[in-house]
C-alpha cells in the first residue's frame, strides 16, 4: 500500500475491503450454520466503517483476512456489484388449459454490462427449472468479439442466488448477452407468477387466469433476474397463450402473431418499457372484461374485472383518471406511460400493487357496488387507487436504492393519497380522519420497544416483508405531513418536484429527498438558513419511537419549561435520556385559539451528540387560561401538562366552549390522557373527567380516538369480574350520541355531512355490542325482514352502512340457523365487499361448536374461503371473548400447519397475532405464550418482529392489570 495514499481513497478501499470481507464471512459462517456469530461479526464490521483511526492498519488486516477466505462461495445477501443488466427480453408461454398441469416456460435474454472483471454471473432464481444445456452466453459488440460459455452453476438457496461460472472472464466495460431457458409450475401461492380463478355461474364452470405479484422479492420466482430495486432496465415482454385469452403487461401491445408450432396459440409482444425495477414488472393471461375510461388527451385507461363483475368497475374507472390528473398537476410531471390498466384479481394476498402501467388490486380494493358497498368501502377503495397511482411517480419513476428506504415510496404514497382523496372528495373530510388514524396507529405501535426506525438496515427477504408495516406507511406519512405543515405549501411542493425530476428513472435514498427539500425551503425562506431538513428529519426517521413532551408552566413568570423523552408503553423501562427529536413547537392559548397556524413558533433542538435540551417558552398567559401544544396534531408527539393546565382543559371541554378546540386537537387530548392513565403519568380520575365531555361530543374524530382506547380496555376488562361497571360506564357514555345519530334507524339518505355516516356506523356498532337502547331489537328486526324476502340475495333491506353490525348481532345472538343463512348469502354473493362483511360477522357467534367449525373451515383449501381472506375470518373469531379462547388454542395447536398454509406470505402470521395479543393480560397466560413461542421458533421464522411485538403488548397488558385495574374500577364507580 502506498504511504502517500489520500484519506478518501483509503476510506473507499477500506469500505470495499469490508464489504468483500462481509461476503466471505457470510459465506463461511452461514455454511457452518453459525448465524449468531455471523451477526456479531457483521455488526462489528459495519461499525468499523465509521472509525477513522488506524485506518491503514485496518486496511492491511482486512485485505489479509479477505484473501485468507477467498476460496469459499459467494454468500453475501446482496448481488455482487460487478455486473448490471441493461435490458431484458422475456418470452413466456403460459398453459392454462389443463387444470392438472398449469405451467409456464420461456427464455430470459438479458443484456449485461460488466462493470468489473468477473468470472461469474450471479442472479436471482427461485423454484425455477433452468435448462442448463441450452444456456448461451456471448459478448456483444467490441472488437475482440468472443464467444463465452458457462462451465458450471451453483445454487445458493439462502439468498436465492443462481451463480453461473463462465469459461472466460467477463471484462469490465463489455456487454454480454445471456440466454436462459426456464420453466415452472404456475403456483397457487399468490406470489411470483401464479394462477387465480373465479366461478362462471352461467357456464357453471371454474375459469382460470394467470397473474404476477413480485414485490418485494418474487420476480425471481417467475424468471431469472437481478432482483434488487437498484437494477433498473427496460423490459421487452412477449407472452404466448391460447387465443381465447387476452394478454396484458406493463406496456401496450406492439404486435400479435400466431405461435409458430402450437395450434390456436398466439405470441403477443408488448412495447419496450422504460427502465424499471424487477418488482414492478407485471403480466397476465386472462379472459376478463374491461371498462375503458374516457380521458381527453390522457393515457389510455382501462379497468378490468371478471366478466360477471364488470358492472362494479364504474366508480374506479371514473376515479382513476381524475387521480392521475391530480398528480400530474401536484408533481408537475406528466404520467410517462402510454396506458394504465387497473386489474381486479380474485386471489390477491395484499390490498393492491403498483406495477407500472398494470396496477393490480384485490377485488374489495377496486370494485364498487351501489347496492352492496358501504361508504367506508368506497373511501378505502378510493384511497387505495390514489395510493397505487401515487407510486407511479414515487416508487416507479424514482425508486429507492435499497429496501432500507421503502418508506420513501410507501410513506409518500400514503401521504399524497390523502391529499388527493381530499381534493377529489372534499365532502368526505377524509384528510383529517386519515391524519388522525395514522397518528393513532403509530402512537400505539411506536411506543413499543420492539418497534424500529422508519429507515433501517435490511439483510433478508423476511425483513423486507416485515417492513411493510405501520412504521413505513403511517409513520412515514405522518412525518411527511409534519414537514408539509412546518414548511408550508410552496417549499413542500417544490422540494418534491425537484427530487422527482432529479432522480427520474433512477434510484434515490432519503438523503436525496432531504437535500431537495432543504434547497426549496431555504429558497422560499420557510426554514431558517442554519437549519437543514436532514438534521431535523433524521431524528424522526433514523430513531425508533416518538417523544413525550412535558410542559410545566410557571404561572407567575408566564413561561413554560419543556423537556422530552421517548414515550414507552412498557413502564418497567426507564425513559430518561432515551433519544432526542427535533420537535417543531406550535401552540396556542385559550385566548388566541389560532390552531390553524402550524408554523413552528420554536423548536426543541438536539445537540450534536443527540442530547435533548430543556426549552423555555415565554409570553404565555396567566393561571386562568390553558395552552395547547401541537396545533392540529401536526407532529407525532404526545404532550403532558402540569395539573393546572389539565384542569383548565377539562373545564373547557366540559363546557359549552368545547368546540373552541378543533376536533383533531380534541381527539389528541383524549388519546394522550388515556395513554397517560395507562402508563401512570396521570390518574384515571383525571382521564375520565376529561373524556366525560364526550356526552356533548357530536363529531367523528374525538369519538374515533375514544373508541380506539376504550376498545383496548374493553378487551381486558370484559374478562374480569368488574366488567359490569365498565359496561354501565360505556353505555351511559354513548347513549347521548346514539340518540343524536337517531340510533340504528335508516336515516342515511338525509345525512348531509358525510363523515356523520361513518360516525353513525361506529356508534351503532358499539351500541349493539353494549345493548344500548333499541339497537339489538332493531337490528334483529332488519334481519327478519331480510329473511322473509323471497330472494334475499337480490334484495337486502338492511341499510348498507350498518350491515356489519346487524349481521354480527344476529350471529352473536342467533343459532346455527342464522349462521347458515348468512353463510349461504356468502356463497351466493358476487360482491367482494359484501363477502368480507359476512366473513367478519360469522366470527361473532358465541356457540363454541360453530366457532370451532368455522376455524377449521377458514384454513381448508377445499372450502369457499380464499386464502387471501382467511386472516379476516380468523381475526373476526379471535376478536370476540369466546372466540378468542378457541382461536388462541387453534393457533397454538396448529402453528406449523398455519405457517405452511401461508407459505411465508407477507403479513399473514402477523395479522393473526394482532387480536390475540390484545387479550392476554395475566402473567401466567403471558408466560405460557412465551414458552410456546420459544418452542415454536421454527414456525415464526421470518415473523420475528411480529412475535416480539406480540409478547411486548401482552406484557404491557399484564402491567396494566397489575397496576391499574383496581384504580380504574375505583375511578369508574362514582361516575355510574
Ligand atoms: N407496494 C405495496 C404493495 C405491497 C405490500 C407489496 C406489501 C408487498 C408487500 C402497495 O403499494 C401497497 O402499499 N398496498 C397496500 C394498500 C395501500 C392502500 C396502503 C396494501 O396492500 O395493503
Ligand atoms: Zn404502497
Automatic annotation (TrEMBL):
Taxonomic superkingdom: Eukaryota
Residues in the signal sequence: none
Domain Aminopeptidase N-like N-terminal: from-to ranges: 85-280
Keywords: Aminopeptidase, Glycoprotein, GPI-anchor, Hydrolase, Lipoprotein, Membrane, Metal-binding, Metalloprotease, Protease, Zinc
Transmembrane segments: none
Gene Ontology MF terms in the entry: alanyl aminopeptidase activity; metalloaminopeptidase activity; peptide binding; zinc ion binding
Cofactor (UniProt): Zn(2+)
Residues annotated as the enzyme's active site: 388 (proton acceptor)
A Gene Ontology term for the protein's cellular component: plasma membrane
Residue ranges annotated for the Peptidase M1 membrane alanine aminopeptidase domain, each copy included: 315-540
Cofactor note: Binds 1 zinc ion per subunit.
Protein name: Aminopeptidase
Amino acid at each position: 500500500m502506498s504511504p502517500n495514499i489520500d484519506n478518501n481513497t483509503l476510506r473507499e478501499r477500506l469500505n470495499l475491503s469490508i464489504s468483500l470481507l462481509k461476503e466471505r464471512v457470510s459465506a463461511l459462517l452461514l455454511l457452518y450454520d453459525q448465524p449468531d456469530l455471523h451477526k456479531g461479526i457483521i455488526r462489528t464490521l459495519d461499525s468499523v466503517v465509521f472509525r477513522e483511526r488506524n485506518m491503514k492498519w485496518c486496511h492491511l488486516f482486512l485485505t489479509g483476512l479477505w484473501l485468507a477466505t477467498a476460496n469459499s462461495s459467494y454468500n453475501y445477501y446482496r448481488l455482487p456489484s460487478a455486473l448490471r443488466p441493461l435490458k431484458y427480453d422475456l418470452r413466456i408461454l403460459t398453459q392454462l388449459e389443463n387444470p392438472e398441469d398449469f405451467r409456464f416456460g420461456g427464455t430470459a435474454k438479458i443484456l449485461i454490462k460488466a462493470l468489473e472483471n468477473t468470472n461469474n454471473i450471479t442472479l436471482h432464481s427461485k423454484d425455477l427449472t433452468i435448462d442448463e444445456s441450452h444456456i448461451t452466453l456471448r459478448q456483444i459488440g467490441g472488437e475482440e468479439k468472443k464467444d463465452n460459455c458457462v462451465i458450471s452453476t451453483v445454487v445458493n438457496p439462502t439468498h436465492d442466488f443462481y451463480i453461473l461460472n463462465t469459461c472466460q472472464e467477463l471484462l469490465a466495460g463489455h456487454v454480454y448477452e445471456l440466454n436462459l431457458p426456464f420453466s415452472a409450475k404456475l403456483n397457487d401461492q399468490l406470489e411470483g407468477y401464479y394462477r387465480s380463478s373465479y366461478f362462471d355461474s352461467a357456464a357453471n364452470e371454474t375459469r382460470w387466469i394467470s397473474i404476477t405479484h413480485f414485490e418485494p422479492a418474487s420476480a425471481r420466482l417467475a424468471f431469472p433476474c437481478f432482483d434488487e430495486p437498484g437494477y433498473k432496465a427496460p423490459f421487452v415482454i412477449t407472452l404466448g397463450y391460447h387465443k381465447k385469452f387476452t394478454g396484458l403487461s406493463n406496456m401496450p401491445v406492439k404486435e400479435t402473431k400466431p405461435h409458430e408450432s402450437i395450434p390456436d396459440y398466439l405470441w403477443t409482444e408488448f412495447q419496450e418499457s422504460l427502465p424499471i425495477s424487477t418488482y414492478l414488472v407485471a403480466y397476465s393471461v386472462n379472459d376478463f372484461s374491461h371498462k375503458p375510461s374516457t380521458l381527453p388527451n390522457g393515457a389510455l385507461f382501462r379497468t378490468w374485472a371478471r366478466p360477471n363483475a364488470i358492472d362494479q368497475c364504474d366508480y374506479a374507472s371514473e376515479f382513476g383518471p381524475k387521480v392521475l390528473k391530480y398528480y400530474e398537476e401536484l408533481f408537475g410531471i406528466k404520467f410517462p406511460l402510454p396506458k394504465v390498466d387497473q386489474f381486479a384479481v380474485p386471489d390477491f394476498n395484499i390490498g393492491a400493487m403498483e406495477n407500472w402501467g398494470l396496477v393490480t388490486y384485490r377485488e374489495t380494493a377496486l370494485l364498487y357496488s351501489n347496492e352492496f358497498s358501504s361508504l367506508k368501502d368506497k373511501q378505502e377503495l378510493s384511497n387505495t387507487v390514489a395510493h397505487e397511482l401515487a407510486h407511479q411517480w414515487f416508487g416507479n419513476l424514482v425508486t429507492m436504492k435499497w429496501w432500507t428506504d421503502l418508506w420513501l415510496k410507501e410513506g409518500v404514497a400514503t401521504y399524497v393519497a390523502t391529499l388527493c382523496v381530499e381534493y377529489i372528495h372534499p365532502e368526505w373530510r377524509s384528510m383529517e380522519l386519515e391524519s388522525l388514524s395514522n397518528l393513532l396507529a403509530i402512537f400505539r405501535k411506536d411506543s413499543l420497544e420492539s418497534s424500529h426506525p422508519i429507515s433501517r438496515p435490511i439483510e433478508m427477504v423476511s425483513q423486507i416483508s416485515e417492513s411493510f408495516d405501520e412504521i413505513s406507511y403511517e409513520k412515514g406519512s405522518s412525518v411527511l405531513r409534519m414537514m408539509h405543515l412546518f414548511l408550508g405549501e410552496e417549499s413542500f411542493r417544490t422540494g418534491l418536484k425537484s427530487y422527482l425530476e432529479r432522480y427520474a428513472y433512477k434510484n434515490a435514498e432519503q438523503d436525496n429527498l432531504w437535500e431537495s427539500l432543504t434547497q426549496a425551503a431555504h429558497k422560499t425562506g420557510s426554514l431558517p438558513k442554519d437549519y437543514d431538513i436532514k438534521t431535523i428529519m433524521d431524528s424522526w426517521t433514523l430513531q425508533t419511537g416518538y417523544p413525550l413532551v412535558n410542559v410545566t408552566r410557571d404561572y407567575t413568570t408566564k413561561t413554560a419549561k419543556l423537556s422530552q423523552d421517548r414515550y414507552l408503553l412498557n413502564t418497567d423501562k426507564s425513559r430518561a435520556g432515551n433519544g432526542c427529536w427535533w420537535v417543531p413547537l406550535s401552540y396556542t392559548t385559550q385566548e388566541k385559539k389560532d390552531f390553524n397556524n402550524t408554523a413552528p413558533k420554536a423548536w426543541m433542538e438536539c445537540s450534536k451528540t443527540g442530547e435533548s435540551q430543556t426549552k423555555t417558552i415565554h409570553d404565555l398567559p396567566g393561571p386562568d387560561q390553558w395552552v395547547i401544544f401541537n396545533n392540529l396534531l401536526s407532529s407525532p408527539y404526545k404532550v403532558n401538562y402540569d395539573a393546572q393546565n389539565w384542569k383548565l382543559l377539562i373545564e373547557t371541554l366540559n363546557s359549552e366552549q368545547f368546540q373552541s378546540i378543533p376536533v383533531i386537537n380534541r381527539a389528541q387530548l383524549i388519546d394522550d390522557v388515556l395513554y397517560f392513565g395507562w402508563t401512570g403519568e396521570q390518574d384515571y380520575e383525571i382521564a375520565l373527567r376529561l373524556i366525560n365531555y364526550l356526552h356533548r361530543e357530536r363529531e367523528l374524530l374525538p369519538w374515533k380516538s375514544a373508541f380506539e382506547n376504550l376498545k383496548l380496555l374493553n378487551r381486558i376488562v370484559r374478562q374480569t369480574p368488574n366488567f359490569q361497571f365498565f359496561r354501565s360506564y360505556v353505555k351511559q357514555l354513548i347513549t347521548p350520541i346514539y340518540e343524536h345519530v337517531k340510533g340504528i334507524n335508516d336515516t342515511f339518505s338525509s345525512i348531509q355531512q358525510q363523515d356523520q355516516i361513518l360516525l353513525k356506523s361506529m356508534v351503532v356498532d358499539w351500541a349493539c355490542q353494549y345493548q344500548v337502547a333499541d339497537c339489538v331489537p332493531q337490528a334483529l328486526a332488519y334481519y327478519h325482514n331480510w329473511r322473509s324476502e323471497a330472494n334475499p340475495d337480490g334484495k337486502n333491506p338492511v341499510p348498507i352502512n350498518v350491515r356489519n353490525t346487524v349481521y354480527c348481532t344476529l350471529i352473536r345472538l342467533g343459532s346455527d340457523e342464522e349462521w347458515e343463512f348468512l353463510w349461504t348469502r356468502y356463497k351466493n354473493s358476487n360482491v367482494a365487499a359484501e363477502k368480507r362483511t359476512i366473513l367478519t360477522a360469522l366470527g361473532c357467534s358465541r356457540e363454541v361448536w360453530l366457532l370451532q367449525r368455522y376455524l377449521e373451515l377458514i384454513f381448508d383449501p377445499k372450502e369457499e374461503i380464499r386464502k387471501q381472506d382467511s386472516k379476516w375470518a380468523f381475526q373476526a373469531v379471535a376478536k370476540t371473548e369466546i372466540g378468542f379462547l378457541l382461536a388462541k388454542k387453534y393457533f397454538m395447536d396448529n402453528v406449523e400447519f398455519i405457517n405452511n398454509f401461508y407459505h411465508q406470505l407477507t403479513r399473514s402470521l402477523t395479522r393473526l397475532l394482532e387480536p390475540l395479543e390484545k387479550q392476554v393480560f395475566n402473567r401466567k397466560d403471558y408466560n405460557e405464550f412465551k414458552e410456546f413461542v420459544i418452542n415454536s421458533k421454527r414456525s415464526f421464522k421470518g415473523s420475528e418482529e411480529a412475535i416480539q411485538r406480540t409478547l411486548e403488548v401482552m406484557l404491557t397488558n399484564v402491567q396494566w392489570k397489575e397496576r391499574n385495574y383496581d384504580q380504574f374500577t375505583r375511578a369508574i364507580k362514582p361516575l355510574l
